[in-house]
Amino acid sequence: MRRTLPLLVALQLCGRASAQVNISAYASGGGAPKGAWGAAAPYSPPANCSGAWTGWTACSPTTARQTRFFEPKRWAANGGTACPSPLREEQVCEYPGPQLLYASGSRSVLWQACQCVDAEHAVIQAAVGDSIVFAAAQGTPKIVRMASTWHYSRCDETGSENVPLDLAVTTQGVLLSNMYQYVIRETDSGRSIYFSGVECARGQRVRVEVEAFQHGTLSLVMDLLGKKAYATEQGARVMVERLWCSVEHCPSSSVSYYLADYGVAKNLWKRE
């Protein structure tokens, strides 16, 4: 009898612990019970990656290749379908030769302010050797190159540089009257150029993405940070551009959280 007493006490304790477990607390589809060992974690359904591929960049005259990037809107979670890997694709292309690309969108439209607020023309995809053409009624237009996308978005000319222009020339060597050009240089490859006129705030501006220009992502920014790209002025400008662009291409919920509006971020996240 003395030997069985400890065993009986142990069985009674186990019985009490078992009685505290709520078997009905198992989640449908499997889950830990609620009770003596704590509450079960809420079930989270699989979430697939969502996003879209960018258009193909201009064909590079040096490599005869063009690039596109997958821009994730939401990463996969809980076993959902993953995003493409890598997030960059290349394909062989046929370089068409130097192109005349009109900043105003058309040869017949002058480079001038529009009757709008905070506007810009469509982004121009360009390659090294292409010409960005600015059409003016008379005289060479005043064009500046903004220091970064941050300056461009605010029409802030701090740190900008004047852009010398030449009369535009067709592939047949014919001068175009009242047409002035900026020829894309090799140092512009993989970058975005922000051009602005004297009435930037009224839409006199245009953004040019040269060849394999990649929009900013947090991983890209961290990679540049690890490589100390900020050590040079050009590297620092690239980092500013990528940092600004990474926020610009985040889902709305992430940007709301970044702006410290948790309530809005949570509601947006449920809809995305």
Overview of the structural elements:
This protein is an alpha+beta fold and 272 residues long. It has helices at residues 4-19, 149-154, 218-226, 233-248, 252-258, 262-271; strands at 50-53, 65-74, 88-92, 100-102, 124-126, 131-135, 144-145, 161-162, 166-169, 175-183, 192-196, 205-210. Helix content is 24%, strand content 21%. α3 (218-226) runs antiparallel to α4 (233-248) and α5 (252-258) runs antiparallel to α6 (262-271).
Q: Count of helices?
A: 6
CATH topology group of the largest domain = Immunoglobulin-like
Largest sheet: 5 strands, mixed
Mean of the pLDDT scores?
75
> What spatial form do the alpha-carbon principal axes imply?
globular
CATH class annotation of the largest domain: Mainly Beta
Number of domains: 3
* Measured distance between first and last alpha carbons: 67 Å
Could you give the order of the helices and strands?
A: HEEEEEEEHEEEEEHHHH
Helical content (DSSP H or I, runs of 4+):
10-25%
Give the second-level CATH assignment, the architecture of the largest domain.
Answer: Sandwich
Secondary structure tally: strands: 12
Radius of gyration: 29 Å
Are there runs of 5+ residues with pLDDT below 50, and where? 1-36
> Roughly what fraction of the amino acids lie in strands?
15-25%
Structural class: alpha+beta
Order the strands across the largest sheet as they lie in space.
Answer: 5-12-11-7-8
